[in-house]
Amino acid sequence: MISLQVELTTVELESLRSEIADLEEKEAHLKAQLEHLDELLRSARLAGYLFIRTRWTALPGEPPIDDADVDDWLPRFVVLHGSCIFFYLMSTDLSPQDSTLLSDIVEVGPLPSFIREDEHTRYSFYILTRHGLRYECSSISEIQVGSWLAALRTDCKLESNTTALKDLS
């Protein structure tokens, strides 16, 4: 049996210790993200990825903007939890990028479906806040859009949730 002995310099040893500490810190951060996501999904009423774009309501006398050719739909992980709707950049993010109180939502409804460059039909809906902020949301799943419309209408006490499914037909 051959015995091999490796000797490390102090600098090499400290470098390895530093690398191990960095990896342990990264592991702790990833565990925190996973635990956060697990808790979020367990307690959320509805959660999932939607394509989102935001618009502001035109001011009185302001001409309408035709932005049909603008492709600014961004994927966001959206969570309906408690009295808020949260918008995360990714499902693993610890903090939302944006949020809106359900009590600030004055209207939700379907938008016309459309086809993107990937040739998939996108079903869409909007969420309008009393501040004039309009979230436009889309998905390739008609069922997912119907679920969001129904849940938002129920939780915001806007209309009966059976209307949401009829709107998509």
Sum up the structure in keywords.
PH domain-containing protein; 33% helix; 3 helices; 7 strands; 169 residues; coiled coil; alpha+beta; disordered C terminus; 7-stranded antiparallel beta sheet; 33% strand; elongated; 2 domains; PH-domain like
Structure report:
- It comes from Nelumbo nucifera (Sacred lotus).
- Keywords: Coiled coil.
- InterPro entries: PH-like_dom_sf (IPR011993), PH_domain (IPR001849).
- Residues 43-157 form the PH domain.
- The chain is 33% helix and 33% strand.
- With 169 residues, it is an alpha+beta fold.
- The protein folds into two domains: 10-43; 45-59 and 72-168, PH-domain like.
- Helix 2 (142-155) packs antiparallel against helix 3.
- The longest helix has 34 residues, at 10-43.
- It is elongated.
- It starts with 9 loop residues before the first helix and ends with a helix.
- Mean pLDDT is 84; it is low at 160-169.
